[in-house]
Design brief:
The protein is mainly β. The chain folds into 5 domains: 186 residues, Sandwich (Immunoglobulin-like); 105 residues, Immunoglobulins (Immunoglobulin-like); 99 residues, Immunoglobulins (Immunoglobulin-like, Sandwich), CATH 2.60.40.10; 109 residues, Immunoglobulins (Immunoglobulin-like); 107 residues, Sandwich (Immunoglobulin-like). Helix content is 10%, strand content 44%. Helix 1 crosses helix 4, helix 2 packs across helix 5 and helix 4 packs across helix 5. It starts with 5 loop residues before the first helix and ends with a helix.
């Protein structure tokens, strides 16, 4: 039997087969499956065969059932995969990727083309999107005739700074489920202007009232990514009227990204005293309004004043006969009246040039240039003098430099001094100080004498470890070490100078040496009493007394002897905290005790002497006055028989003696003859 043409078979399948199962129409998956199963026989190009399957899975299914060459695909391509292939053939592209778009703005529309089958029209055609995307434009209506195409336009409108995704869904009668087209794009931050100022404050200094001062300028920069538009440039504050604005920044004149403009302010004080205002620059900048503080002082008309940019200028080492590079010093009239310049002069081996003319207006500045041309080797000094009508004239700048011989040595110390050795105990040496003497010249330098002189020169010495010695030749770029010690001979500040001589090189200036002598730590003796007084009854001995010895100094106290001037008095170690037997040592802060006694006189007479302590103290001895006083006792009746016997005598009361004898006899008798 003769077979039907392919298009008839596909048309028949379109009429007989209707989808009964819900599939996912994924054109991306369909492209993959088409490449695997169909690409060996077909391409996606428009052909009579391929065009029949666009958006029509029924035509693809019928072809597999009726065409022998495609019969083997029935078990390979599932029903859902056939729907994916139909979606792939009928909707291009399979995904839309949008360029970076600013938040709140809309991208250009991208389109998806929808194609119908060669034999099947599409009805109930509709579209929807998800995410930050909108359907915009296109030609698709609610139906599409057979063998036709239309477009769906999609635009990207990001709502956040990030990668954004969504889906375009295309529904129609050809597929059981919507065709999903992947959408993607990136949201970008909206460009913003950012304002930056070259200064946040302007000081106008002193200004004569009623006289306009020099304008000051602030540069306004747009460091953002969008145009900077000013909404206001204004002044506020109590003295706002004393300042006038100008410049190129203006409301209505935009400043492009990375562009600049200027705001100028001029101060005309309306009153004497401090004046201030605030310059506010308002704009669309992301960092808000920019403010500049303005300040100045109004002064009554007065006199000129000279302010020099430096008080001294050093030119360093310059070869004899050569000229140094120019050094500049600014001259400013810091007063409130015109400055009349009568002369500007340089003295010594120095010359000057200037652009000051015969005078300067208030607040004006000019420049003076000075040059050093040494005529001989060695240190040179001079001055730059400005004579004018200003108070304090003439005004001077000290100039200095060192002339060096061409291809000769130039000696200099590593430390310009003064060299301070600190404080050291008299007779003890401080830490040694090492100084480096370098030859910074272009030729060798032969050392002459190295001399320590001055009022206290003997307290300083050159140590034997020094490598700088008379006659030493130091090559260009070489050096030697001078080691100096300090041994103070007395307490107090000590000073000397160190000089170096050379016959073929420039030498450094005098080096000042300084140190301080301090007294060594010494012991000190403190006695608990300056005198001891004893009282004893006639014929008796006085009570002992203690004498404390304390080392109140800063070093150990060595006691070599403790002596008493009279044998009637005695000193010995006390029981509590006893002192040692001389000689002995007391540590710093320690205390010991002596027990001092007096034998008494046997009468009411008095005795006195001194106790002497000898040790390494200043003065070498310390004394304590000792005095003893005897006291007589009034006689009393000591017996029961009426006879008075003086105390402390050998006499016996006769009545008491008799009574004692009788008592003894009675006791003896009772013991011999008990009852």
């Amino acid at each position: 039997m003769k077979s039907l043409p392919l298009w008839n078979v596909m048309l028949l399948s379109l009429c007989l087969v209707a989808p009964t199962t819900s599939w996912s129409a994924d054109p991306v998956a369909g492209a993959t499956k088409f490449s695997q199963a169909c690409a060996s026989c077909h391409t996606v190009a428009s052909t009579a065969t391929v065009d029949r399957g666009r958006n029509s899975p029924a035509m693809i299914t019928n072809a597999m059932a009726t065409i022998a060459q495609m019969g083997g695909l029935s078990g390979v391509v599932s029903q859902s995969e056939r729907e994916n292939i139909a979606a792939y053939l009928g909707n291009t592209p399979s995904a839309l990727s949008f360029s970076q778009t600013t938040i709140g703005q809309s991208s250009a529309a991208l389109v998806v083309t929808v194609k119908s089958s060669l034999f099947a029209a599409l009805s109930n055609l509709s579209t929807s999107v998800s995410g930050d995307f909108v359907v915009q434009g296109g030609t698709c209506a609610s139906s599409l005739a057979t063998s036709s195409s239309c477009t769906v336009g999609v635009a990207f409108m990001p709502t956040a700074v990030a990668s954004r995704t969504g889906t375009l869904s295309i529904s129609h009668s050809g597929l059981t489920t919507p065709v999903t087209i992947a959408l993607s794009g990136t949201g970008a931050a909206a460009p913003q202007a950012t304002v930056s100022l070259s200064a946040t404050s302007l000081s106008f200094g002193n200004q004569v009232t009623g006289v306009a001062g020099t304008a000051r300028t602030v540069t306004v920069s747009n460091t953002g990514t969008a145009a900077l538009n000013f909404t206001g440039i204004s002044l506020s504050g109590a003295a706002a009227a004393d300042f006038a604005l100008g410049g190129t920044c203006a409301v209505g004149t935009a400043v492009a990204a990375n562009g600049t403009c200027t705001v100028t302010a001029r101060f005309t004080s309306s009153a004497v005293g401090s004046r201030a205002a605030v310059l506010a620059i308002a704009s669309n900048a992301s960092n808000g309004t920019a403010n500049v503080s303005l300040s100045g002082s109004g002064v009554a008309s007065g006199a000129p004043a000279v302010t020099l940019g430096a008080t001294s200028v050093s030119f360093g080492s310059v070869a004899v006969g050569n000229s140094s590079a120019a050094r500049t010093v600014s001259l400013t009239n810091s007063g409130t009246a015109a400055l009349t310049i009568q002369s500007i002069q340089a003295a010594g081996a120095f010359t000057q040039s200037n652009d000051c003319g015969s005078g300067l207006a208030a607040s004006a500045t000019c420049t003076i240039s000075a040059v050093f041309t040494p005529t001989a080797a060695g240190a040179a000094s001079g001055s730059l003098t400005v004579t004018s009508n200003a108070s304090g004239s003439p005004h001077a700048v000290t100039l200095s430099g060192t002339g060096v011989l061409a291809s000769t040595g130039a000696l200099q110390w590593s430390n310009a001094g003064p060299i301070d050795f600190g404080t050291s105990v008299v007779g003890a040496e401080s830490a040694l100080q090492t100084l480096t003497l370098s030859n910074s010249g272009t030729g060798p330098a032969d050392l002459g004498t190295l001399n320590i002189a001055g009022t206290n020169a003997s307290d300083f010495r050159v140590d034997a470890t020094s490598t700088c010695t008379q006659g030493l030749s130091i090559a260009a770029g070489g050096s030697c070490q001078m080691v100096v010690g300090f041994v103070p001979s007395v307490t107090g500040a000590r000073a000397a100078t160190l000089t170096v001589a050379s016959g073929d090189a420039s030498v450094p200036g005098v080096l000042q040496l300084a140190g301080t002598g301090s007294a060594p730590a010494a012991p000190a003796l403190t006695l608990s009493a300056a005198s001891l007084n004893f009282v004893a009854p006639t014929g008796g001995q006085a009570a002992a007394q203690e004498l404390g010895l304390t080392n109140s100094g800063a070093a150990d106290l060595h006691i070599s002897a403790v002596r008493v001037g009279s044998s009637r008095f005695a000193a010995s170690p006390a029981t509590d905290s006893p002192c040692g037997t001389a000689s002995f040592t007391l540590a710093v802060g320690a205390t010991c005790k002596l027990q001092v006694t007096w034998l008494g006189t046997g009468s009411d007479a008095s005795e006195s002497t001194e106790l002497t302590v000898t040790g390494d103290i200043l003065p070498a001895t310390a004394t304590v006055s000792l005095r003893g006083q005897g006291t007589a006792i009034t006689p009393a009746n000591a017996g029961g028989g009426g006879c008075t016997v003086a105390a402390n005598t050998a006499a016996v009361d006769p009545v008491l003696a008799a009574m004692a004898s009788i008592a003894a006899a009675l006791i003896w008798r009772r013991r011999r003859h008990p009852l």
